[in-house]
Amino acid sequence: MEDRVSVSEPARQLIEELKAAHGPIMFHLSGGCCDGSAPMCFQVGEFKLGGVDEKVGEIAGCEFWMAREQFKLWAHTKWMVDVVPGRGASFSLEAPLNKRFLIRSDLCAA
Amino acid sequence: MSSAQVRPSAAPSHPGPIHESGSFAAHVKTLERTIPLHARYENFIGGEWVAPLKGGYFENISPTTGQVICKIARSQAEDVERAVDAAHAAAPAWGRTAVAERARVLNRIADRMEQYLPFLAAVETYDNGKPIRETNLADMPLAVDHFRYFASCVRAQEGSLGELDDDTVAYHYHEPLGVVGQIIPWNFPILMAAWKLAPALAAGNAVIIKPAEQTPMSLLVFAELVQDLLPPGVLNIVNGFGLEAGKPLASNPRIAKIAFTGETTTGRLIMQYASENIIPVTLELGGKSPNIFFADVMREEDDFVDKALEGFAMFALNQGEVCTCPSRALVQRSIYDRFMERAVKRVEKIRQGDPYDMSTQIGAQASNDQYEKILSYFDIGRKEGAKVLTGGVANKLSGDLAGGYYIKPTVFEGHNKMRVFQEEIFGPVVSATVFDTQEQALEIANDTLYGLGAGIWTRDLNTAYRFGRGIKAGRVWTNCYHAYPAHAAFGGYKKSGIGRETHKMMLDHYQQTKNVLVSYGTKALGFF
Fold this sequence. Notes:
The complex is a heterodimer. By secondary structure, chain A is of the alpha/beta class. Helices cover 19% and strands 40% of the residues of chain A. Chain A is built from two helices and seven strands. In chain A, the strands form two sheets. Chain A has a four-stranded mixed beta sheet with strand order 3-2-5-4. By secondary structure, chain B is α/β, with parallel strands linked by helices. Chain B contains 16 helices and 25 strands. A seven-stranded mixed beta sheet of chain B has the order 15-16-17-14-13-19-20, sandwiched between helices. A six-stranded mixed beta sheet of chain B has the order 10-9-8-11-12-23, with helices on both faces. The longest helix of chain B is centred in the N-terminal third of the chain and has 25 residues, at 132-156. In chain B, 56% of the residues are buried. At the A-B interface, helix 2, strand 6 and strand 7 of A face helix 8, helix 9 and helix 12 of B.
């Protein structure tokens, strides 16, 4: 089965950089305003997952999670985690590097 | 731009040099006649401009041009601690200061802002990218009014007493929380700061506020303008990134409350930090606000139709970077084609261009990552089968502005299960769909994870009332949109957050209730 979440090569490199600097990391997809609908990258344990969350994939050895209610609305699509120059006002680990993870979406095969 | 790194200690009024060229230069020249802008901004702690203890800085980019406009202190935990120390030193005296005096300080801040209003507006445009028309006519006047409003509220606030029986009285006093933390967003940097600072300061708290790292400059310029008006340590501004500066603030055991505006994952993270210290949290986390147009809107050809069409186009206000952006348009089937034809024409008349031109109606997105995110939604929207009625592309401007982040106002047509209908894009993008019955309209309106804002357009009072009450959102604009008066509560249902902003009820979010229960009787109860 095709993976729902994939990763671009520049994003994979950034993830490796972040792992080297911070140890094991994970992603949680955000919703809502400002920097919402973007992947947030944290050290494992920083963000407390709960029963409302669902693991939707793994990229570069990192778990990718999102809220189950939000997943229902995204379920017909698949996502590539990419990176662009920028700086989300978030707690995501890459922000100080002037880079920002970004989701690029496509439809799942019917 | 002045290279001075030492701050003037009093409110400055001297001119300074300039940088840059073209229309941008003329704009900056005007700015610098009022007050010099600095190449580097430190933290504002304890009434002084303090370099970050580890000495790091980050570059602040103007989204109007994509160019670096200054450097900003990149703070760490020790800088936050310093600010918390300063706030604790100031909080007891500020909390005991007579409300008349606190109100006077707030009023003086408002007066100072008003005195420098075009200047502050210009700095905000420089830092955030929004058109100068908006910063002059909306952001700054609203921010000024917010300080005046809470100056009034706190003077009119009273405790209460309950006469429990002939001998016993329950007195309720409002007391400040003490030292509070605030983390603000980048879409209305000064206005969102005013929304949080005015009630917190009025209520007698000392504040540590962290501006967003995309737009840190304008609040620092604001602080430079008003620093002589506030006792040292009452207002502290610490800059930096989320995990480096935001976490030490939000998780600090010496703050009594944390307020945050942003997205849901960080909102949860903030709550998790607050749970460690058992302190209250207020959160404003955005929405996907429906704007509903009933058939009777077009029953007459009059001013109201025109107003409703403007209401449709309101999604483009502030480049769509508004938590309450009316980003879903629900239009009744019998008028759908006629209404949408005119609505799209209205949108196509929106003037995008030089943010420093007073006739420009939409400026630059606040950052490159936002710009890229919006473009990624154009892509998935098309893939899902949404039809682009207008826009759907970036807008490349020329000259100085060629490197800026401009997006054309965009109207999608589709259905409510599409991702462009369910996710906050935070760009000048509206997704339109059709409904037949009122029941269907309500179902679509509430079929979202969020509940911050909504708009209803109808000539029928009963429909307006039923929908106003039926929509699960904190603010239902009825025959209007995007009005933000201080004396109207703003906040979210569902995943849009916790608590309210604006309105005098905000004082409660920054106060403790002290109950003193007094017996005036002299006889023992007889229990023991």
